[in-house]
Amino acid sequence: MSSLGAVEARTGLERGDFSAEELTRACLARIASKEDTVGAWAYLKVDQALDQARALDIKKQSGEALAPLHGIPVGIKDIIDTNDMPTECGSAMYAGRRPLEDSMVAALLRQAGAVILGKTVTTEMALSAPGKTTNPHDSKRTPGGSSSGSAAAIADHMVPLAVGSQTGGSMIRPASFCGVFGYKPTFGSISRRGVSLLARRLDHIGVYGRCVEDLALIGDTLMVPDPGDWDMVAKPGQGLVSALSEQSPASPRFAFIRGPVWDQADPDMAAAFEDFIKGLGGAVAEVELEGIFADIVECHALIMNANLVVSLGEATEKHPDKFRQVTRERVDRGRSIPAAAYIEALALADVQTQILDRLFDHYDAILTPAARGVAPLGLETTGSAIFNGMWTLMGVPAVSVPVLTGTSAMPIGVQVVGRRGGDGAVLKAAQWLWKRFVSQ
What we know:
This protein has a domain at 6-244: Amidase signature (AS) enzymes, CATH 3.90.1300. It is built from 14 helices and 11 strands. An 11-stranded mixed beta sheet has the order 1-3-2-4-6-5-10-11-9-7-8, sandwiched between helices. Helix 10 packs across helix 11. The model has no long low-confidence stretch (mean pLDDT 96). The protein has helices at 6-15, 20-38, 46-61, 104-111, 148-155, 172-178, 212-222, 240-245, 267-279, 296-318, 325-333, 339-359, 389-393, 423-439, and strands at 41-44, 73-77, 115-120, 161-166, 181-184, 204-209, 254-256, 284-286, 365-369, 398-405, 411-417. It is of the alpha/beta class and 440 residues long. The chain is globular, with a radius of gyration of 20 Å.
């Protein structure tokens, strides 16, 4: 039962095939059997989750209409505040921290009837220093980061839905490494109120699920306007579930973009990706991003590093012993960035975003790698985000679809990128890609 996707589970709960308590117990049993190996959870609230599930069952028995996520167990990244659980950001600096209020994300999940099982492992402060999580496909490999626990919990069938975040590649890369569906919406679509921020210009909240339809279900729940997040400029509430149900007369028009870092792709990923593109035939055309996009990776890094000084600089300086060396080094990279260089990078990013938008006058979505290759061996790092940062910088929606396989039969995701604000269209393109894959 714990292997059910969210839409499947919602249907089963509605029909009465099983109760919310039974589904929650199944997920908790799976966690109990695998957590020692996978290490996806920073905190579990077993008794409270079961109490919540029983209360939802009573509501259903009384004839109340079911909320969109009624009885669905969810894990949320340990940078997102919850008033009934610690939020420690994977750091000794915040050990034992108990927020007084829910984040907007947690509040919306509760309103939608979700059962929040606990907090999933994050790298320290959602940066580079890994947590305890391993890859469910091979415990000697990284699950990616920084949303390590959220992706691994989905991949190991511990929970149907999970929430993470992305500032560089923290949603899409773990989805690729763990072989699950991951979705980073358009910038400003999901409130970050009550979330530990790294870079206000770049931080996105994202979601994981077992299929595109699952992403749409939780996406509709979370994409709600919130005046508490001043950067919610994307006019969320697009009706993702409805968009997926609409019939399309033809296949999407895809642009295959290698990007400026294709030379850093692992050979097996590059070969698998090119074969995949060839298999799509006339549905895809190769497009090059040149000129102004040549420095986009460096542009993202400069903006992110400068912001780290603002978000973490004072804390790492006053309490260096509370942060891991990798985190301190990331912050230190931003200290020497001149203000003029930062302003220039922001201006360049705005122009890059505007120019990319014109591409979608001709194509419905972009296909590009979700990661350099399969999850690397070793748990000392979480892998490279080199294929993700540029799309994060431009704030466009992106979905990782697990359709490729590389070395040692490890999964590789295809990243489907859409027009800024066109989240329904990019999910629909990802859905089409997955259906074509499973039909072969």
